[in-house]
Amino acid sequence: MIFPVGDRRGRVVAFGARLLEGEGPKYINSADHGLFHKGQLLYGFSRARAAAADGKPLIITEGYMDVIRLVEAGFMGAVAPLGTALTEEQIQLLWKIIPKPPVRPDLLNHIPILCFDGDNAGSKAAERALERILPHLAPDQSVRFAAMPTGEDPDTLILNKGPTAMQAVLDAAQPLIDFLWQRTAGERPLNTPEDRAGFRRALETRVALIQDRSLQQDYKNMIQERLQQSFASAPRDFARNDNRAPYQKRDNSKSYQRSFMPVLKARPLPNNLQERIVLALLINHPALFTEMEGALDNLPITDATLEPIRQAVFDFMSDPDGEHENPVALRDFLEKAGLGAALSKVLSQDLYVHAGFARPDRPLSTALAGWHDIWNRHLRVLLQDDLKNASLELKNTGDSAVLERIQQLQAMLIDMDEKAEAEVMEN
To answer: In the listed set 164, 182, 200, which residue is the last one of a domain according to the structure?
Structure first.
């Protein structure tokens, strides 16, 4: 099925296509040219611009048919990327057409709503969109997230249940701060100090992506308030034991074992070596993606040239028809995405001197053990940073609650070391 793609004024400059049956790419577009760049245009944009000027909400969906069905149902501000993941340029394009104050007294109605499919791929697309949007947030410049019913997309929901059901989904759209909190929490348990420390650090890592300093501080303040409210009465999962550290963990849940695997007082790796190793490990061993996905989301990328690789890896893994465990297919995808130079930087021979386990010829079990070690280096550094900050806070405030947090952090570090030593003795 062929769809004409218009520029910002509605003039047809390219075509998109959706495969209905048979083998081949699910979506295909005209090649980029002087008037068309698929990452900088949106399907239905010219109509949505007129709708925004009339005060209609902007709705970002995943596919062409979603846009068509929404418009037929009266949602004139519907747009969609051109068969690719939502880009920074596309969301900024929408922000530019929103009427500016004082024209829009009701700001909420003018915040674009991201409305992805109610399946696993749609959930991952929303996560990727969140990561790409955070650095570009600014005053009066945000998005909301609408949760589609499981197994539904705007096309099927309107077809089966009508526009009223779709309107209910849009009315329940979450502000970005709520979506950030919910998705960062995920299904992780939040009963123990370790769980809460990991959750807090994950939130802080994501908020640090916001470039606008005043807005970033507002997010930090709001998150701190929510943390205090949520954990003020949370039960402790620690018991006193005078024969060991001040506190001993009782809960040996799967979540704990996966998040804090043994590490022997590892020091942080220099410069951007850690992120390069993680990316090289995943590119050479994409079968580890399921194991690494959550941590990869929260990995700080200090080298701006490497961030597109992380995003492209997620795009590759989001393709339901992709060869997800084929390293050759993944490298070809990255090359075709124009990331050859960055890929060479990641897969350099000097990196393998520090991380032989990341080499493409290493067994998957060796690569997995290397991943456990490299991620625990990162986790231990985060705990040490938290301990340092808490110690400074205690010195300035003398707050007994801070002292308790210090004891918990110390116990966590001791617990990690004891687990590591036990594993060494066992092996």
So the answer is: 182
Whether residues 119 and 53 share a domain: the answer is: yes
> Are both 7 and 97 inside the same structural domain?
yes
Q: Number of folded domains in the chain?
A: 3
Sign of the CA dihedral 308, 312, 313, 318? positive
Residue 420 CB coordination number (10 Å) = 18
The residue count of the chain comes to 427
d(CA 109, CA 113): 9
Distance CA 127, CA 184 (A): 10
Longest dimension (CA), the chain: 76
Residues 167 and 198 in one domain: no
172 and 293 in a common domain: no
Q: Which candidate, 362, 358, 276, 288, places its Cα nearest to that of 324?
A: 288
Q: What is the CATH number of the domain that holds 165?
A: 3.40.1360.10
Burial group, residue 23, by CB count within 10 angstroms (0-12, 13-18, 19+): exposed
Residues 6+ apart with CB under 8 A from 219: 177, 207, 210
Q: What is the C-alpha to C-alpha distance for residues 140 and 111, in angstroms, rounded to an integer?
A: 8
The CA-based angle 155-333-321, given to 5 degrees, is 40
The backbone torsions φ and ψ at residue 181, rounded to the nearest 5 degrees and listed phi first, read: -60, -50
Residue 369 belongs to a domain: no
User: How far is CA 406 from each of CA 130, 189, 236, 352, 393, rounded to the nearest angstrom?
Assistant: 32, 21, 14, 37, 10
Pairwise CA distance, residues 190 & 198, whole Å: 9
pLDDT tens column, 285-294: 998 888 887 7
**For 105, which DSSP code?**
S
pLDDT along the chain (427 residues), means of 10: 89 90 84 85 91 89 92 94 86 85 53 87 86 89 88 91 91 88 77 78 88 89 78 40 30 30 37 81 89 74 83 84 86 89 84 82 84 75 78 78 78 70 53
Which residues span the domain enclosing 92?
2-182
Q: Which of 233, 248, 263 is the last residue of a domain?
A: 248
Question: Which tens digits make up the pLDDT trace of 394-422?
Answer: 777 777 777 877 877 787 777 766 665 55
Distance CA(370)–CA(147), nearest Å, equals 37
